[in-house]
């Protein structure tokens, strides 16, 4: 299986108005983005529903995704083009399992689960979502990118690898046979997807500064011999207090670390997938009609299969 990905991209991304290096420099002046060869290609429109400052219940995000996917599939059957979509958020604490996940990876009695537990149609085993973890759900038509699921998985990994390298000088990697992004034996990003008629949903979850203790109650992704890590944890281990660190760089707090990571995730997603974002209003209670209001999508979908309600 090939793991190398070298997508070309525009040196002047349109998705964000700021200089990308400002992110790294704000966090730590000694971190400088590496020079990457760039070429121009056409960018595809992507509607972005940015809820990264909110804690969204899992069932709501699942409903939004499924309703958007169903509408996109209908358009695809009519041979009508449509914009890609991207939902970015944090979740309220929850455990989710993939369609074929085994409950043996739960270290608790499911009838006495500490959190809600849902089984969804994504691939992969059990994982945890919660505050301090940024989740990206791309809903894209692979017919306009590359009709190759391995390429798509590697592309999602590439987004995170670039974020960690360009913004935090953290060298991350892939591990053959294990989907996700790793730093040593620590998994920083989990990926689980579903593709229907070449339209993707579900996506990736990057641990920025979450409470990692809920992972101790499961076998994350069914992998027993490796740990789960976070950006915050790695930065504390990587940078001693007398160099570029959280403590001496304007006291970067958890909120700021989320903001820095969020900006970098958006930027790198745009580069890897050649996306030109158009931000959509997502405040609940504001009616914008079918094309912009997430409450519209929520109203049209059923719930995922809930195994246990805490």
TrEMBL record:
Pathway: Protein modification; protein lipoylation via endogenous pathway; protein N(6)-(lipoyl)lysine from octanoyl-[acyl-carrier-protein]: step 1/2
GO molecular function: lipoyl(octanoyl) transferase activity
GO biological process per UniProt: protein lipoylation
Database matches in Gene3D superfamilies: Bira Bifunctional Protein, Domain 2
One Pfam family cited in the UniProt record for this chain: LplA-B_cat
Origin superkingdom: Eukaryota
Documented EC number(s): 2.3.1.181
PANTHER family according to UniProt: LIPOYLTRANSFERASE 2, MITOCHONDRIAL-RELATED, OCTANOYLTRANSFERASE
Similarity annotation: Belongs to the LipB family.
Protein name per its UniProtKB record: lipoyl(octanoyl) transferase
Species for this entry: Olea europaea subsp. europaea
């Amino acid at each position: 299986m090939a793991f190398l990905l070298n997508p070309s991209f525009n040196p002047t991304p349109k998705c964000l108005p700021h200089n990308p290096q400002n992110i790294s420099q704000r966090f730590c002046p000694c971190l400088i983005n590496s020079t990457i060869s760039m070429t121009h290609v056409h960018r595809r429109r992507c509607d972005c529903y940015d809820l990264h400052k909110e804690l969204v219940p899992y069932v709501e995000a699942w409903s939004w995704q499924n309703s958007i996917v169903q509408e996109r599939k209908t358009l695809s059957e009519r041979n009508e083009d449509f914009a890609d979509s991207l939902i970015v958020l944090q979740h309220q604490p929850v455990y989710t399992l993939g369609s074929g996940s085994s409950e043996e990876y739960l270290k608790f009695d499911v009838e006495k689960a500490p959190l809600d537990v849902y089984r969804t149609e994504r691939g992969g085993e059990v994982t945890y979502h919660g505050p301090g973890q940024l989740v990206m759900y791309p809903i894209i038509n692979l017919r306009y990118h590359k009709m190759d699921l391995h390429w798509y998985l590697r592309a999602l990994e590439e987004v995170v690898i670039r974020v960690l390298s360009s913004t935090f000088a953290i060298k991350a990697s892939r591990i053959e046979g294990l989907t996700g992004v790793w730093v040593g034996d620590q998994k920083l990003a989990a990926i689980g997807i579903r593709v229907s008629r070449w339209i993707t949903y579900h996506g990736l979850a990057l641990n920025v500064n979450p409470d990692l203790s809920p992972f101790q109650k499961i076998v994350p992704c069914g992998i027993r011999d490796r740990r789960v890590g976070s950006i915050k944890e790695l930065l504390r281990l990587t940078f001693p207090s007398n160099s570029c660190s959280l403590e001496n760089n304007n006291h970067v707090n958890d909120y700021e670390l989320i903001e820095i990571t969020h900006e970098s995730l958006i930027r790198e997603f745009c580069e890897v997938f050649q996306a030109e974002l158009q931000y959509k209003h997502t405040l609940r209670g504001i009616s914008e009609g079918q094309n912009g209001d997430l409450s519209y999508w929520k109203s049209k979908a059923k719930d995922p299969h809930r195994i246990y309600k805490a």
